[in-house]
Specification:
There is one protein chain. The protein contains ten helices and 31 strands. The protein is α+β, with helices and mostly antiparallel strands. It has three domains: 18-165, Beta Barrel (Cathepsin D, subunit A, domain 1); 176-303, Cathepsin D, subunit A, domain 1, CATH 2.40.70; 312-396, Roll (Pdz3 Domain), CATH 2.30.42.10. The strands form five sheets. The protein has a ten-stranded mixed β-sheet. Strands 1, 3, 4, 5, 6, 7, 8, 9 and 10 form a nine-stranded mixed β-sheet that branches.
């Protein structure tokens, strides 16, 4: 047999062997099961930065996972490097900022949430240190939609409890507002939302977003055409909220609606903003105890009277830039910060007692903002290297909107 044919046959054989070891990601995420047949489990959760965190055990070690209905189950690259789970697929993943990156999908043989064993679940491997905020939150993984689909979940942020099982307790159904949903091939929860005479379809319910209702520019234009949106305020700069941490330019508009409707359920005084993804975020969800019934595709909402979310702002957002360090990421027009001359990309020297030139870092700032003061002292460095001091009053975003 000629050498060329032998080499060709070897190459074909290698390709066949490689392809036989992996499957498409949308087939791989259908793997998995639960060991217990009937169960109900309740555990404590942590709320930080308006996000929900859950303890997860793998190989007897407890990790800190983000509870995120808007993403797939995921483990950190550090866990994968340590435990070396079998790779079952490879592909591209798009994060909430529409950044695309190649990822590996692995099969996690066994993990525990509470006392419940989830077996052979497919997870994508993520570098959570790529996003500065996620790195500061020390995330080890994501409890995502393809894992959640096995159970009925109740998220009670008022009492910081997460319940899940094969059934839903009657107290979470009684007097609850019911909302139907559908799912896609990633098991994302998709909602239809009515605002005025307009219907916004396939909005993703996303506990992994700490924002309000985010909609696409085309959705925004529909609301404007129907005179539902008449006024707005604009935030300009960059953001890097997606898993991959890549900065994205924004010119984000924000407005408020008196109410929105899902099925027969009305939610009043809702902030709406434009975004790269269409998300129903935890700024709204945290006001309710929410039960998610994947089998019957229903949500149950019960009002949490002791939780009130505010729309306050300093008029700017701080981020981390690999070349300049801690900087102003974005500024809201017509805010006090905007009027006093705070600009995007200005380097931050100090915030309150934090001195970034003398050892404090971005994670110190993230922790500091868990209990932000009414008036924030910030020292910035302008374009000519001069240090400029500001004292910015915390302001209700709606006041800026109404001005």
């Amino acid at each position: 047999m000629p050498l060329k044919i032998i080499i060709y046959n070897i190459i074909v054989l290698i390709v066949l062997i490689v392809n036989s070891c992996t499957v498409s990601w949308n087939k791989a995420i259908r793997y998995g099961d639960i060991k217990q047949e009937e169960f109900y489990e309740t555990l404590d959760i942590e709320i930080k930065n308006n996000l929900v965190f859950v303890p997860v055990q793998i190989n007897g070690i407890t990790y800190r996972f983000l509870f995120d209905t808007g993403a797939m189950f995921s483990i950190s690259k550090e866990i994968q490097e340590e435990l070396k789970f079998k790779v079952v697929s490879k592909g591209n993943l798009v994060d909430s900022d529409k950044n695309r990156s190649k990822v590996s999908y692995v099969r996690v043989d066994d993990l525990q949430i509470g006392k419940i064993n989830f077996e052979n679940q497919t997870a994508f491997v993520a570098n959570f240190k790529a996003n500065p905020i996620l790195e500061c939150m020390e995330i080890d993984g994501i409890v995502g939609s393809n894992l959640m689909r096995h159970c009925i979940w109740t998220v009670d942020q008022q009492n910081q409890k997460l319940s899940f099982g094969t059934y839903l307790k009657p107290e979470y159904i009684k007097d609850a507002e019911q909302v139907p949903f559908k799912t896609d091939n990633q098991y994302d929860i998709l909602l239809n939302i009515e605002i005025g005479k307009a219907t916004l379809k396939n909005i993703k319910l996303d506990y992994g977003s700490n924002g309000p209702l985010s909609i696409s520019k085309s959705n925004w234009d529909v609301l404007k055409e129907n005179d539902i949106i008449q006024n707005s305020i604009v935030e300009r700069g960059i953001k890097n909220s997606g898993i991959f941490g890549k900065p994205v330019k924004i010119s984000r508009e924000t407005t408020f609606t008196d109410s929105l409707k899902m099925n027969d359920f009305y939610i009043e005084n809702v902030q709406i903003r434009t975004g790269t993804s269409r998300l129903f975020g935890n700024k709204i969800l945290s006001k309710y105890t929410v039960s998610i019934d994947y089998k019957n595709k229903k949500l149950f909402f019960q009002k949490n009277d002791s939780i009130s979310t505010t729309n306050w702002t300093y008029g700017f957002k701080v981020g981390y830039n690999s070349s300049k360090g801690i900087v102003i990421n974005s500024v809201t027009e017509n805010s006090k910060a905007f009027e006093e001359g705070i600009l995007t990309n200005m380097k931050v020297a100090k915030i309150d007692s934090l001195n970034f030139e003398l050892g404090n870092d971005f994670c110190d700032y993230v922790d500091f903002m868990q209990d932000p003061p009414e008036v924030l002292y910030i020292q910035l460095i302008d374009s000519v290297g001069e240090k400029v001091d500001f004292n910015i009053q915390r302001t209700d975003l709606k006041k800026i909107f109404l001005n």
